[in-house]
């Protein structure tokens, strides 16, 4: 997916800058939202890593503990080219915990470990805390103004380019799969391709909603989410005035679909809008239905929490913010400046 074609909330940035001049310019700390139980057949291990991808560390942990690679899980993938703190889960039924003081992997440090009753699965985290350093900023004043605008109004909740694979390969392969050019048997590839498909469709609908200037206007039949919650309900015509007030007050958020095989959740005017956006993507829609992917909803806009920034000098700014699980720091940076170099692939 070409992120350059997606609508900006605050207009296309005029300023340029560099993200991730080095890994230390991009720090992610995983927030599970709970503390380990202290007992159970699973061992949660918190590791700070630099220059290692998530699966590589998981495989190494499995070998270290003498268990199968499938017995090590994690809540989400984290970027290799960054400093990240994330949790790994080792399934050790009836086994003693390994001596982690002997764990030695270049670029990795064990921060803590504790037993837990349940397996850590993909997505079972509350969010991530980010610390980013943006360098070589071409226009200090514009970036400052955009940061203030983001603090007030948020950013589009787009899936970042890393969701679509290097060079958009996951989406390319999904389209080939959809048209029966290839068969995809490997479970992980199927998951990546289907995820890329529904993410691209979400981005498409969200971008069009912003282009229509309707991202903060409740339509009849909209699926509205309570702020900070996953549940949603459908806006009825007779409630529009009240619901608009609640949206303006920040109590509610408009959602867009992650399409699949099932009802999208909207009705009336909102449903008609979403269907019109998807007319151009029959192959991906057919693939998601064929593979029985369960539909879901996701907020159109993303409000970075605890957003603060500190200018080190006129061309360098440090940002700190927290995002809920599944949201992308690239979506925040994209609204601040255009990247003129560097690797912008960021963890979820």
UniProtKB/TrEMBL annotation:
<protein>
    <recommendedName>
        <fullName>tRNA pseudouridine synthase D</fullName>
        <ecNumber>5.4.99.27</ecNumber>
    </recommendedName>
</protein>
<feature type="active site" description="Nucleophile">
    <location>
        <position position="79"/>
    </location>
</feature>
<dbReference type="InterPro" id="IPR020103">
    <property type="entry name" value="PsdUridine_synth_cat_dom_sf"/>
</dbReference>
<dbReference type="InterPro" id="IPR020119">
    <property type="entry name" value="PsdUridine_synth_TruD_CS"/>
</dbReference>
<dbReference type="InterPro" id="IPR001656">
    <property type="entry name" value="PsdUridine_synth_TruD"/>
</dbReference>
<feature type="binding site">
    <location>
        <position position="128"/>
    </location>
    <ligand>
        <name>substrate</name>
    </ligand>
</feature>
<keyword id="KW-0819">tRNA processing</keyword>
<feature type="binding site">
    <location>
        <position position="26"/>
    </location>
    <ligand>
        <name>substrate</name>
    </ligand>
</feature>
<comment type="function">
    <text>Responsible for synthesis of pseudouridine from uracil-13 in transfer RNAs.</text>
</comment>
<keyword id="KW-0413">Isomerase</keyword>
<dbReference type="InterPro" id="IPR042214">
    <property type="entry name" value="TruD_catalytic"/>
</dbReference>
<dbReference type="InterPro" id="IPR050170">
    <property type="entry name" value="TruD_pseudoU_synthase"/>
</dbReference>
<dbReference type="InterPro" id="IPR011760">
    <property type="entry name" value="PsdUridine_synth_TruD_insert"/>
</dbReference>
<dbReference type="Pfam" id="PF01142">
    <property type="entry name" value="TruD"/>
</dbReference>
<comment type="similarity">
    <text>Belongs to the pseudouridine synthase TruD family.</text>
</comment>
<dbReference type="InterPro" id="IPR043165">
    <property type="entry name" value="TruD_insert_sf"/>
</dbReference>
<dbReference type="GO" id="GO:0160150">
    <property type="term" value="F:tRNA pseudouridine(13) synthase activity"/>
</dbReference>
<feature type="domain" description="TRUD">
    <location>
        <begin position="154"/>
        <end position="302"/>
    </location>
</feature>
<feature type="binding site">
    <location>
        <position position="328"/>
    </location>
    <ligand>
        <name>substrate</name>
    </ligand>
</feature>
